[in-house]
Amino acid sequence: MTTLPQTPLRTGPIQSQSQSQALRERVMRGSAVLLLSTAVVAATNLLYNFLLARMLGVSGFGHASALYTLLMMIAAITLSFQIITSKFIARNSDIPIQAQIYTRLLHRAWQVGLGVTILLIAASAYLQSYFNLPAQHDLILLAIAAGVYIPLGARRGTMQGCYNFRSLAINVVVEVAVKLGAALLFLHFGMGVTGVMTAVLLSIVAAYIAGQPEAKYRSISAGQVGIRTKIAPFGEGMQAVLYFIGQVILSNLDILLVKHFFPPSEAGVYAAVALVGRVVFMLSWSVVSSMFPVSASHAHQEGRSALYTGLLLVGTVTSIFIAAVALAPEPVWRTLLGKPFLLTTSFSALLTEYAAMTGIYCIAVVLMMYEISRRTSLAAWVQSVASVWLAAAIWRYHHSLSQVILVQVFVMSGLLLVVTIPLFRKQDESEPLPTGSESFRCLRPVSEDEIVAELLRGEF
Fold first, then answer.
1. What span, in angstroms and rounded, lies between the C-alpha atoms of 72 and 271?
2. What is the pTM of this model?
3. Which residues of 126-136 are buried (b: 16+ CB within 10 A; e: fewer)?
4. pLDDT at site 432
5. Cβ(373)–Cβ(365) under 8 Å?
6. What is the pLDDT of residue 113?
7. Alpha helices, DSSP H only, in 297-346?
8. How many H helices and E strands in the chain?
9. CA dihedral defined by 263, 267, 268, 271, rounded to 10 degrees?
10. Which of 35, 86, 311, 359 is most exposed by smallest CB count within 10 Å?
């Protein structure tokens, strides 16, 4: 008879500390790679938007921002596929199962993407009227871009779940580089907002092609895998969708409502404030992206180590960014954006308020994404309630751009307070209750006969 290997089933306290340290290092390394790429993307996006602001003017820039914001609203579905793919691939180390997860979720993403494209094309006339957009065909380009953008989430989720942060970083850089180059080319030929949306479509297609997974994930199709596994439970899938719907509403609804309530010139100023202020969210999201698969694939104690590391990094990044924005003189923004963006109000004051509001939300996002990784549903519901609260508050209080930002500060502060409560829970919902206070350790190897005898004695 064979004997069991002399390997401990559960690590002791010293090994547990070493594992926590290793997880923290993994989060730090992944965050460093993604922070570097996000810094490149953020700088390129700022350059992209500054050039758009100068080449399109205030009104044209407002139109382009409204269209791109609509795409970011649809990104709730994209991010849902990304996080679900990442979560289940991180929990399964077998390549055949990972290939099956990727294949099935990519197929579902294309189905959803086609449905979203058809829906947007059907509603394009109404959306053009509601947001005061100049051309309906720009919305059709947006619809096609959205249809490709949703499957891109499944491909990026595969990279994230396999801890392939370098490929994920390169993929994001490819998207923004193609968007910048194509936009400048089309604007040079006088295509205006239509040229900008065409560039967005080309950048998403380029990112999808560049995000093709390794051959080991493509060589095994869902039908070839003999293991029947439940890829994505309905509850967890809906939880992710609900969470990201709340996130995109909280992150983008303000721009759409400002575009509706304010004249084009003020809406353009607010769009410029938002594009600079959201750089801190991009940087923070890179930390969350590296923390999430580590937290999802490890036990409660180790997951908490990843959470605290993420909170430390995000707190540092947001503090530095808010200080830099607050200290930047007004002439800097006048040089970058042009005088028309600084005629109506104090741009620096608005930007500082917006950056502080976004920083509060970034801390809340770290806590909510940790809750999502532990299979708990509180975060998704709380954020959905906050998004409804935000929409109602801005609809009621929008006398000035500063008031719109102040409303968001109150909503984000309330959200942060509520999502902090689960931190005081000692046991999370994704783990079984402990059977004892001491760690398990290996005493001696035993034979198969002895194991069977002990099981039978326990039965009778």
1. 14
2. 0.64
3. ebbeebebeee
4. 44
5. no
6. 93
7. 300-327, 330-337
8. 16, 0
9. 180
10. 311
DSSP class of residue 374?
T
Q: What single-letter amino acid sits at 284? A: S
Instruction: Determine contact, residues 29/459, Cβ cutoff 8 Å.
Output: no
Of the candidates 426, 294, 293, the residue with the CA atom closest to the CA atom of residue 24: 294
Q: Dihedral of the CA atoms 330, 406, 391, 176 (nearest 10)?
A: 30
In order of 1, 44, 102, 180, 442, the CA distances from 447 in angstroms are 7, 63, 40, 65, 14
E-only strand ranges, 254-311: none
Q: Which residue has the tokens 């490819």?
A: 174
Assigned token pair, 198: 């065409």
Structure confidence at residue 321 (pLDDT) = 87
Q: What is the CA radius of gyration of the chain?
A: 24
Residue 131, pLDDT score = 77
Cα distances from 282 to residues 188, 353, 384, in angstroms, run 29, 17, 21
Q: What is the pLDDT of residue 299?
A: 52
Q: What percent of the chain has pLDDT over 90?
A: 15
**How is 123-157 classified by DSSP, letter by letter?**
THHHHHHHTT-S-SHHHHHHHHHHHHHHHHHHHHH
Q: What is the pLDDT of residue 255?
A: 81
Spans of the chain below 70 pLDDT? 1-35, 38, 216-238, 240, 292-304, 337-345, 374-377, 425-444, 446, 448-460
List all residues 6 or more positions away from 186 whose beta carbon is below 8 Å from its beta carbon. 194, 195, 196, 198, 199
CA distances from 420 to 324, 379, 424, 431 (A): 27, 10, 8, 20
**Token pair for 392:** 């109602």
